Amino acid sequence: MDSTKQTPVKYYVGIDVGSASVRAALVDGFGTVVAHADQPIRIWEPQPDHYEQSSADIWAACCSVTKKVVCGVDARQIRGVGFDATCSLVVVDKQFQPLTVNCEGQNYRNIIMWMDHRAVSQVERINATQHRVLSYVGGVMSVEMQPPKLLWIKENLQESCWEKAGYFFDLPDFLSWKATGVTARSLCTVVCKWTYTSDGGWDDSFWRAIGLEDLVNDKYEKIGNHVLSPGESVGKGLTPEAAKDLGLPEGIAVAASLIDAHAGGLGVIGAEVKGHNLPCENQPITSRVAMICGTSSCHMGVSETPIFVPGVWGPYFSAMVPGLWLNEGGQSATGKLIDHVVRGHVAFPELQSKAAASAHSIYTYLNSHLDLIKKSLPVGFLTVDLHVWPDFHGNRSPLTDLTLKGMVVGLTLSRGLDELALIYLATIQAIALGTRHILETMEAAGHRISTLFLCGGLSKNPLFVQMHADITGKPVVLSKEVESVLVGAAILGACASGDFASIQEAMAKMGKIGRVVQPNREHKRFYDKKYEVFLKLVEHQREYRTIMNSS
């Protein structure tokens, strides 16, 4: 009889707040997701480009999904909790109660979502200052960052919100406060979305220049004057109230959080790649880009020295991987765009019924339908006469122009399922061409990128993955665990627990490769031509705007 004592498995909880749902996972020390749960959350759209949520709704969903994943597990084996979330703005009063961010005065709607574009006028004025902090956001601040949203609140909700506000949180920091009672902010959020610098902190002159001197006068109490590195333990861990809400023991370590895309990057970019014949093998992590593809897409590249890339956010020091500089490209609408194009097509009801009859998702059915109509051609070649410019929600990177609109060239009078499948394919290709545009801009500035690491919902779509490999000409690595963002959040909890010496150690042990998708080199000439057309589309859009705006 074997008398050796088996070491109990250590578990970590990762909680991810996306745009439309909250997810939780129980993850072991090898990065395996052993339990998973999700729950939808509400989004309000009171008027075009205004998107709001409720912090109470989100916290309730966090508690619900966490209780599900830890059910039946010995609480003594759960060592740490990590949160990630979208970079949305949460407003609470001095007693930490929700405070309205809308003209209707509805306090429970106290979050301005990341994708909210209400602060266009404010961001234009901020960019007109040409302040030195803007060099760390690609030279131009995005309307999706927090300073323009704060300025909008001050100018539009002075009495109902601005004067009553006690704290403005990035959503990931709100969650760590809710769990611990500590108002410390993560270096990731304040550096990436608020203009904090890891060496100099807040720049008083910037906030005064844009009309938010109130924040300076109270010594940044409202936006954070205590900053922690991602993965660092916050306070004394879970408070009794939060522990009861989440179904976890009091005092469990809680990590300083990450933005959701950065958690995805953490979950994939550090994985061991030996034996997969990849160009990044035996190369530093700086040869990799993590691409997190969901409602929107983010492109995360790291470097040992700061690289300033026009139109790409950063460089941010230690914002994702400690000790390395981060550049972050992005596309504001990817999964949302595909959904918009497909569901808005006249043949969508036919697609829905046929997909349901075959017991497949609509996207699995579309991929199969493309295989049927391609005949002897490679699937991608079906769009030789159909081209899409994908900026239906403006361009985040590398053109930083939120006024750009989507374009489709090559439409016919056909209205059937074949045409729906083709516009779906052309939209996916346009997103991949946009990724190539971002990568080429990063490489021109000094990045050396050989391999893409994909995660997020769109990475489950084999057509999306193959088009990114073919169009960028780079191999695509998919993680063993599809839920890489949740693994990234769990890595934070693992670090906060003290079970790993560093984020890098946890990344290497908990990040695992699943599948590698190689580009088809024989298709390079076709996609080079598609890319040439792609760049012409935005030239034409700008030309016709010049004509229409001329006197």
TrEMBL record:
Residues 290-496 form the Carbohydrate kinase FGGY C-terminal domain. The keyword Kinase applies. GO terms for cellular component: cytoplasm. It comes from the Eukaryota. Residues 11-267 form the Carbohydrate kinase FGGY N-terminal domain. GO terms for molecular function: D-ribulokinase activity. Keywords: Kinase, Transferase. GO terms for biological process: pentose metabolic process. Signal peptide: none annotated. Belongs to the FGGY kinase family. This is FGGY carbohydrate kinase domain-containing protein. It comes from Psophia crepitans. The gene is Fggy.
